[in-house]
Amino acid sequence: xxxxxxxxxxxxxxxxxxxDRPAKLNALTKDLWRMLGETVDALSTDDALxxxxxxxxxxxxxxxxxxxxxxxxxxxxxEQARTYGALMHRTLEALKNCRHPLIAMIxxxxxxxxxxxxxxxxxxxxxxxxxxxxxxKNLGLVMAHAELEGLVRLAGPAVALEILLEGRIFDxxxxxxxxxxxxxxxxxxxxxxxxETARRIADGAPLVARWHKQFVRRVQDPAPLTAEERDAGFAxxxxxxxxxxxxxxxxxxxxxxxxx
Length: 260
Fold this sequence. Notes:
This protein is α/β, with parallel strands linked by helices. The protein contains eleven helices and ten strands.
């Protein structure tokens, strides 16, 4: 195994994607950004999956962001930064556009680029001792537009500016108050709680999960819905999963959804 990689673990219809560089607290490199985007794109097309968990290796850090050691070799000028940034933005888009629900399992540190990744997931579950922030002002760096999207969407523009202008590292309860995480649980419960959440998601109708992801994003766009978009809200009634679901409810049994 290489010194830094993206690992995948499968447990039936749940996949875990691991930023696997524990010796560096899962600091992100150019190759890791590329591999992560390719991995998420591939998993998104897998109809056997119903939920994806994204985590860092070990329990010290989700990710502290980009490896500063690469700045001298891969981000030392505008041209290099543009190329590197395009790679980062493709990966953030892959997370944003993933068909399956995504959960960020956050142990420990989640700052900078690590926080960018987490904000592109659908849910974020962290431990009580987790730490968050974007201290890049101390490096003379900005978060580009695509990197800001998740932060602003979750926290709002005023709080996003507070985080960026101060560059302060803050705790899990403050992250929860700012809307950056979904739940804070005891450190020792993060893994179990995340997989319990993933199982609840995976047990639902997968087509419905995909539609809900699309609909929630669409209603944030102020443009009026088209007739076709409005009609999409009724497509579920034509699915086998709908018939399975309501019959199971009436029969008081667990539904076995097929994604059809």
